[in-house]
Design a protein that fits this description.
P-loop_NTPase, Rossmann fold, binds adenosine-5'-triphosphate, transport, ATP hydrolysis activity
């Protein structure tokens, strides 16, 4: 279980501090699929990076399975929108990368990497280099690489944001299959209401900056979800209403900033 308790984040910007997150409190159950949704600049990526241990919080605490966390660890892996693959390494070497750092033998690394490449449908591409792959395939490699170290928590920062609609839908279904099969806890950042509704157990809607948690909306419809059903339509209207207020507020803040700078 992940417990985030009273978390604040301020960025120091040459004297002008930016308050990115204020008093974030969240409990995430083991195996839950959580989506973070909010207007641009509300601090979604910041929150994900803090949970990943890539940047420190300014205040507050976080624990995973009862242990305080304030840095990166093998229990967490991150998948980024831009894939972040090593272009000079083959697909297999990319997947093996984290295992090498953990001192696993060559045989073990190969077994794990090949098994995961099969899981993501890329068994035939193990010896290729990333530039030979489409965006969707690169993101599959990136997911396989994250899973290789067997993290309990998979942190995903708009992983499908750069993909075309069809590839995105395919990868959403594959991710749900992997999530069920590997029993990971997932925190997934997205801009898309539809994506959040399709994927998550709970949607955490954040306010315009500085980001606070505005509302947590449970999505208990069984999967695979029929987005055209009445229940999903109702949820969609609810999320749209809650998020819409914050998108409007974010636009007003931006306008006020522009006026102040003019
Ligand atoms: N390294 C940094 N230094 C200073 N300010 C930063 C830094 N990183 C982010 N910020 C600011 O913190 C706030 C939150 O940014 P963050 O990227 O976490 O938001 P986001 O919700 O993920 O945005 P988007 O949806 O556009 O990706 C923004 O105002 C941003 O400008």
């Amino acid at each position: 279980m992940v417990i985030i308790d009273g978390l604040d984040k301020r960025y120091g910007n040459q004297g002008a501090d930016v308050s990115a997150l204020v008093d974030i409190n969240l409990k995430i159950e083991e195996g839950e699929f959580i989506c973070l949704l909010g207007p641009s600049g509300c601090g979604k990526s910041t929150l994900l990076k803090i949970v990943a241990g890539l940047i420190p919080a300014t205040h507050g605490r976080m624990s995973i399975d009862g242990k305080a966390v304030d840095g990166p660890g093998p229990d967490r892996a991150v998948v980024f929108q831009d894939y972040a693959l090593f272009p000079w390494m083959t697909v297999r070497d990319n997947v093996e990368f984290g295992l090498r750092a953990r001192g696993r033998s060559a045989k073990e690394r190969r077994e794990i990497a090949d098994g995961l490449l099969k899981t993501v449908g890329l068994a035939d591409f193990a010896a290729r280099f990333p530039h030979h792959l489409s965006g969707g395939m690169k993101q599959r490699v990136s997911i396989a690489r994250a899973l290789a170290v067997n993290p309990s928590l998979l942190l995903m920062d708009e992983p499908f944001g750069a993909l075309d609609a069809q590839t995105r839908e395919t990868l959403q279904d594959e991710l749900l299959r992997i999530w069920r099969e590997y029993k990971k806890t997932v925190i997934f950042v997205t801009h898309s209401i539809e994506e959040a509704l399709y994927l998550s157990d709970r949607i955490v809607v954040m306010t315009a900056r500085p980001g606070r948690i505005k509302q947590v909306i449970a999505v208990s419809e069984p999967r695979p979800r029929d987005m055209t059903s009445e229940a999903m339509g109702r949820l969609q209207r609810e999320v749209r209403g809650v998020l819409g207020e914050e998108i409007n507020r974010a636009a007003q803040l931006e306008q006020a900033d522009m006026m102040a700078g003019a």
